[in-house]
Amino acid sequence: MKIKYFSLACGIGIVGGLLTSLIIALVVGPYSPTQNTHLRGDQITSNSIVQTGRKYGFREIIAIESPLLRSIELRNHLVDKSVQYSWDLLNETNELEHFSTVVDIQESLIEHIAHIDPKKALQSVWKFKSNRWSRLLTIVFSEWTSMNTFQALEKATTLFGSFRKCALEAILEVHSDSSELLEFANSIGITHEIELLLGELEAKKLLSEPSGALDLVFSDALDDKEQEELIISITDYWIATEGTEVFPDFLRMIKERFEATPDWNFESKKLLNLLVERVSAYDPRYMWELLILESDAIQLQFASAVLQSWGKQDRQGTFKTLEEFRDDELQDRIRRSLVVNWASTEPKQVLNEIHIVKPEHRANTITVAVRAVFRQHGIEEALTSLSTLEDQGENVSQATMALSKDWAQLDPFATIDWILNTKKEDEIERFHLLRENLPTLTAINPERAFAIAIEQSRINVSETFSLEIEVLESIAEHHDFETLTDFTAKVIESAHPYTYAVIGNQLISHHSFDEALRFGTVIPEDFQFNYFRDLTFAWFIEKPESLVAHLLDFSTKHAKIVAQRALEINTRRQYLSAEDVLQLESLVNTNHSEDES
To answer: Which of 5, 43, 120, 125 is surrounded by the fewest CB atoms within 10 Å?
Structure first.
């Protein structure tokens, strides 16, 4: 009986085993390790990994389809591997053809290198294209922080711009103890920077409650550019996610900020206007309806911002609404602002419809539009626009001057030639255009600029305001002392007193004190006394505390003139210290025999 039961049990066992094997085979399928491990391979599946439990080589791992399984197997593969091993694998990834696979594998390798040697990992970051640096820096500094926060912080401060910020943010994300971080930051002098970033990170966590995030960021100074960008981003997120229903809350927040902003803080007010303009774009009519219920001060501050947004969507509707605005002065100011904005964005359309612009706003509008045409379409179209408007009887003198100055920054030779050739009939306009643009040419070619000034000297408005003086002022600013004195000698004699005084003032304004004193010694002797007296007054206006030190190293004969005049001026202005006064008095009282010695 026992033998029968045993035989039956064996039979059941064998059959059960066969059935179990068959079921596994049907469910899982036969496994045969692939022999093709080319980098493009996609034969290894998740079932393969689960079944075998074996370790795979690098080329087999990168052929795994699943990014998650590929990452897990690669991490397991790199355990106990050296930096050099990962570095060599990193070079191999250049053969990969699928970008997503390349990125995943390279990031895992960088992470492994950073875990062992973060400095080496940082070196490898710069070998990649710049558009990947931020992500790789985050990986490196996250690993670095887990090993040595202070060392990571020190290294991050050696980076610049957005990459420095990226590294610091990675450190702050990993190191949770903000008080310890601030202690580290204080020891290397970046406390304010870390405080700003901690505030930004906290604000980003509050995006589910945007008004709270704005409160946090607004509590800091608004001078920092990154803080401004963060405020704008939070506001955009707030309106984009919750819609125009938040307009009343938004406007209330803006109003509170504005009323708490000091009058002198123009940057903060500018930012508030920008926020109102951006938010109004979602529904400018609704924002306008809310705004006109506010006080005159709030309307005065933000009406232009709302209407700017509205004007971009419905210009005619905006102008019609503006006509109903009760404050005539503000209405005129906003209208001018809207037209100028229109002129800068759609200059050709504005110039074609210039007749709809109020006469008192046209000169400025034409100027803005013509300059915009120059930037967008080039000088030929800008000049054609000027000519057409002039033929229509419009006043284009302001626009002509502005365009010539813009053009001269790019090509002063062509600008001057155009002025000389097209303004032959209007000497006064030619004079003013040359006066504004010859200095730009002087910085590049003083000989040509001075020759033109001499040729056109007959149109000088006066000896005080001459083209030669304009060129010489520019030479004093841009060129050496010898060039200045060479050109000064060519000025006609009747213009000498004005020329010397202007050049002396120019040298003083650029703090070229020694050159100003030297210049007085090379001009004709008859003019030296008045030159030094005029120079002293200019010096007192600019930087009186430097006067005595320069005089002590200068010729006594001419220094006496300056010292005497300085003492006279000081009796009224009292800028000099008691010690300076004693030194000047001593200089004035120096006798002639000492002068000669």
So the answer is: 5
